[in-house]
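Quick question about two entries, pasted in order.
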Amino acid sequence: MRPSGRTLEQMRPIFIETGVTKHAEGSCLIRCGDTHVLCTATIEDKAPSFLKGSGLGWVTAEYGMLPRATNTRNRREAAAGKQSGRTQEIQRLIGRALRAGVDRVALGERQIVVDCDVIQADGGTRCASITGGWVALRLAVNKLLKAGAVTSDPIVDHVAAVSCGIYAGQPVLDLDYAEDSEAGTDGNFILTGRKRLIEVQMSAEGATFSREEMTKLLDLAEAGVADLVEAQKAAVA
């Protein structure tokens, strides 16, 4: 039995509320169980300097966690004067994932910055950030389309992410913190709406895993991402 009482293949409840901030071109609050992330997308009318003259657009991300997102207070990274390696790794992951669902030629020479701020953490914050980040990005691009700033839709597919792992000897979908902290194997799976893989992060934290187990986790991830994509569609409808 999982600590939450869920079945092995059961996701946490997913809620996505859009338009939660006044100024951002796209915004949403995504809640995956007790993990809550505020995602905003900002359109900048020029691309980064390394893309100047290329005709290509860019999508990037920044990620942060509020001091009391966890059960003990974490010091703000700004107070420490630098980002942690974990934060840098996660925001690069979010940016890579979201770019995989974008036609950068169609986007034109501009940049969209997706900010993901974790309000409350209970496992899977990077996955929730990617899933909610796509919704914020979609809403921002809708404004470009409505304004006629782009002539064709730069977003080519949905992008969503979910965690899976081996907990108590069983493959389970959508790990919460209680499971993530005890899992023998932990993985994050990022897929498109067409079930194309973007990135897979897997590690044997307590015990090694077999190819068969990895396949079972991928099967769970595909089903979980399908649920997340349906939630994205409902949010932006």
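Here is the second entry:
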Amino acid sequence: MQKDKYLQIFNNCVLSKLIFKHVKSINNVISKNSSARFRWSDLIKLPYVMAGNFYLNELKQYYADHSIYPHLDETFRAIFKSKNLEALKYLVSLVKPISRTKYITANFDSILCSAAEYGSLEIVKYICTEFEKKRLNYYQALIKAPFSGDIEIVKYLNEQLDACDQSRICRDYDYETGVVFDSAAKMGRIDMIELLTESRSDDRENCNMYYGAIQGGHLHVVQYLIDIGEPTSLFPNMDYGTLFDYSIYCNQLEIAKLLYHNNMRQSSRTAIDFAASHGNIECLKWLHENTTVSASVKAMDNAAYNNNLEVLKWLQQHRTEGCSQSVLDVVCTKGYTDVTRWLHENQPIVYQCSQPIYWAITNGHLELSKWLLENRTERPTTSAIDFAAPSTDTWIALNG
């Protein structure tokens, strides 16, 4: 803002009071991030904050007194997100003279990856041009490009990759081969998948587009993959199981139904446990009525950990797995009084919980501590009483 306009506004007492009264909400609208607020004393110590908020003079002053290396990746990322071309050109002028040796002091590949993910086509082209002698790994950047949402960035980096001899690099990174297809699927971009297929068809052998599409919640991409006969992985994901399991893990019931109706029903995990963690009773009902997927005590535990009494009641009525012995300790740590009462009344195994009252006391849950004293037989330990001593209300409650 120009100084004369600034003074004209803030010398007006009515406008000045109104602005400062609502400065927090104004900032939230502008930044779309309620946590992105800094005191001036903090701002001038953080180059990435200056760069992302167009404080170029302050950024130059900072780098006049400091090394460029701390926060370098964060500063570039902030510039790409804010599309601050002036700051970008300045920072590039500082970094460009750095040699690329085995003792890398500036990760040029990481810079290009951030540009591909957060920047614009103009920014990506600028980085590629300015750092062309740094032997940039275009393949790694291409993996990130779909997250920009700009197919032109994908096209450009794909062309850069084709124009240079990086086929050896791609083979050296076999574990990454095909990930660009997964990125496109995660973004729900069939057009990107088709574009990449034209020039990178060999990479599709190692991709897992189904998992990407499921994670992104893109039903239309899963349907597209089924329609074109995209093969599925021979091995379930080590953490989340089969495609069907993963759809439940990601709370994507409609995708789960689509897979089920296309005979992709294999399950190697306890899918009901996943559904319970989301509090999704509709999904629990569908799984219970239409499939034979398994469950464990983690289903009820997950519901309890999330303070979901309705899911606990549904599981009690329709399932037989029950809960774990230790669930009450965790619930009391969180201070969930209603869930604690329900578990105490409906799950006898929780009588074996070691010290739920200890966890309630030491986490400051006074009302829950009182209820536990009145309804359970175990007494608080000496350490719990010592912990409660500074609080008069808790001390009185524990000592009658």
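Reply: Residues 325-389 form a domain with the Serine Threonine Protein Phosphatase 5, Tetratricopeptide repeat fold (CATH 1.25.40.20). The CA atoms of residues 19 and 26 lie 8 Å apart. Hope that helps.
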